[in-house]
Amino acid sequence: MKNTHKRVISFISAALIIVFAMPISAFIVSANDTTKGLDGKVYEFSKKNDYEVSDDNYNDRTENSTTLGKLRIIGDISNTTTKNSITAYVAGNDSTLKIEYECNNKLANADEDEWHLTDDDDDEVNGIELDDDIDKGAIILETSIDYKNWHVNDSYVNVMKSGKESVTKDFKTNEVQLTNGCYYRVTVAYMLEKVVEKNKILPDKKDYKRIAEVYEFYASYKGTDTSAIGPNEKKYNLGTLKRADDKSDYSKLKDVESDDIHNGKTLGQFFMTGYTEDLADTDPSDKADRVFVKNVGDRVTLWFNLQQNIDKLFGNSDYMINNDKGVTDAAFGIPKTNFKRGALIVQYTDRNNQKHDPIIYTDYLAALCSPDANTKIQLFEEGDYKVALDYQIDNKEWLGLNKSYRISFSFKIRNGDCMVFPFDVKTKSELTDGSVTENGFYLDLAKSKYLKTYVKRSQWTKTSNGYREDIRRNEIAKDGELYTDEGIYTITVVNPTTDPNEQNPTKKQIYVGTDSIMKAAVNPGNKKYSIDEIAAFVDKGATIGADGTISFPNESSAVESSVSTTSESKQDTNSSSTDDDNGSKDDMFSKILLWGGIGAGCLLILIVVIVIAKKPKGNKK
Predict the structure, then answer these.
(1) Looking at residue 19, what is its pLDDT?
(2) How distant, in Å, are the alpha carbons of 244, 423, 445 from that of 481?
(3) Rg (CA), the chain
(4) What residues contact 220, with CB distance under 8 A and at least 6 apart?
(5) 487: burial class by Cβ within 10 Å (0-12, 13-18, 19+)?
(6) For 255-266, what is the HEC assignment?
(7) Whole-angstrom distance, CA of residue 387 vs CA of residue 378
């Protein structure tokens, strides 16, 4: 009996864990997420009006009215402003927003002699035809890049059919919308009725009215409005057109033939901007790829310029982008999906050759592109990318003759710098070239994913003949690895993209330990001295600071020069000997000239004396 009781308790506990864990895992919210309530407009119509929104039908603001529910915007919202007199949200980069409408049961449970929710058998709202009747309320999301051309993104009907206390319906924004800046319009449509006269025999007399709640807002990433393409900015065109041989799978491709309706005609052009340099891939297997090199501050961006009216392709009213349903692209592992009017697919592969799940933007050509406008797709960081635009053309021929096409390409993004970032193990402060730490350090390679980084540790031992180096470690660095053993560490970084032959590496030296001689040895200001010379300075009275700076004593200002001179004379013995020999020869020549001159002078005087002595004397008078 006790065992049975324990089993029951265990079962209940497990069930409770599952019940409470499910909503937690399903609705995880980021710590940065905030919730913004949005005020909208209420429009009122007669039963015969198909929710045709206009100023004539405006009634009041939603905050002053009894509505079907409330609209909220949830996400990493860094700022709230206005754009064209509309509330504008600035989303955190690399994040998206959730649009949530929560219906309550106030109107559903109102008394019959008050306005209460009823079924509406219409299927049209403000010119938008729905897939089914409105019934107990419809919610529609529209988007627009320019606030002129609106596209129906998604919709719900019969939202309050369940009779629950509250029902929440949500939509999500995407990165392309926020990268370009996008207008959003949420329309909530429903019909109300109330009994104005009760009859015992005949049906009760009722009044009806239709209500539309309309909410509009704008959302973008920071800096979207100012990210225009400069007239002198570099641009590189990308994309190859192929025809899908199998209309149900875009991965089976063949060349576009000469008699094809798409031959020689361009739907649009993909291109890249914001990079410092573009290079051909050095990998033979990827030689068709382009490598875009970015430096600090660069914003490498992929764009698409739609050059056709998708309802009248190539100027022919018989050609249009078709609503493509139930298709796949096996090259990206995508199951059967409704691509609608063009699907843009972007897949990222990281440094470890790990392919991430592809991002799919369905209905791309209809929802996110305007003819002759440059649509920003994504800002890119380091990595390898594959991009495809899959679409089908309806040529209004016999059923089944629609043709499917794909524009695709791949490319790589690499950082152009050659930097590595060491940090102190305890203080977490960044260490520069020549730094000293007793704690040890670690390397942050997050911004150096594709760089080659080597670390060499040297220990120096004092011997009778001076200091001797012993290399204790020499290997490729790992991100986050700790280096705490005593020694001088030489960090060498090479960028294989910009320096494939490793001719221009970046080097940094860091000393881990307490030895003052070693501290001085790594100080960039002492690079001209050897370790033996630094030790000699100390022997003659020099002191070394905590950062390796050498201070010479005032009473012995000649310490540095004497040590350096001694060292230089030891290193240049042969050269010095040669100089001494040359000096001796010069002295001998000078002496010969001197004594030769003296001898010549004496001889001249002697001759003069002799001449005077032999001169005849004059006669006496």
Answers:
(1) 31
(2) 48, 11, 10
(3) 42
(4) 88, 89, 90, 91, 178, 179, 180, 181, 182
(5) buried
(6) CCCCCCCCCCCC
(7) 11
Instruction: Write phi, then psi, for 471 (nearest 5 degrees).
Output: -80, 120
Structure-token pair, residue 597: 């001159």
Residue 573: predicted pLDDT: 44
Q: What are phi and psi of 86, to 5 degrees?
A: -115, 145
- List CB contacts of 445: < 8 A, sequence separation 6 or more: 420, 421, 451, 453, 477, 478, 479, 480
Task: Decide: helix, strand or coil at residue 395.
Answer: coil
Contact criterion met (CB below 8 Å) for 59 and 193: no
Whole-prediction pTM value? 0.72
Work out whether strand 268-273 and strand 301-306 pair parallel, antiparallel, or are unpaired.
antiparallel
Cβ of 458: how many Cβ atoms within 10 Å? 18
Side-chain-side CA neighbours of 514 within 13 Å: the count stands at 1
484/426 Cα distance (integer angstroms)? 11
45 close to 60: Cβ distance less than 8 angstroms: no
Q: How far is CA 152 from CA 40, 71, 254, in A?
A: 19, 18, 33
Q: Which of 297, 306, 304, 146 is nearest to 223 (CA)?
A: 297
pLDDT, position 6: 43
Q: pLDDT digits over 139-171, tens only?
A: 999 999 889 889 999 999 999 997 788 899 999
d(CA 374, CA 269): 9
Mean pLDDT by 10 residues, the chain (621 residues): 44 35 38 88 94 96 96 95 94 90 93 95 95 96 91 94 88 91 96 91 90 97 72 91 91 92 93 91 74 88 93 90 92 93 94 90 88 82 93 76 90 89 95 95 83 94 92 91 95 91 92 96 93 93 92 64 52 46 50 57 59 51 34
Q: How many CB atoms lie within 10 A of CB 227?
A: 18
The answer to whether the beta carbons of residues 302 and 377 sit under 8 Å apart is: yes
What pLDDT is attached to residue 29? Answer: 46
Of 574, 571, 555, nearest to 563 by C-alpha is: 571
Number of neighbours of residue 230 by Cβ within 10 angstroms: 8
- Residue 607's pLDDT is what? 62
DSSP sequence for 148-196: SS-EEEEEEESTTTT--SEEEEEEE--HHHHHH-EEEEEEEEEEEEEEE
Report strand pairing: 182-197 vs 116-118. Answer: antiparallel
Contact indicator for 100, 71 with CB cutoff of 8 Å: yes
SS3 269: strand
**What is the enclosing helix (H) or strand (E) of 388?**
strand 383-394
Domain ranges of the chain: 23-226, 236-415, 421-571
Taking alpha carbons only, the member of 344, 264, 334 closest to residue 304 is 344
- Partnered with residue 454 across adjacent β-strands are 476, 492
Nearest to 406 by CA among 466, 331, 457: 331
Query: Cα 422 to chain center, whole Å?
Result: 22
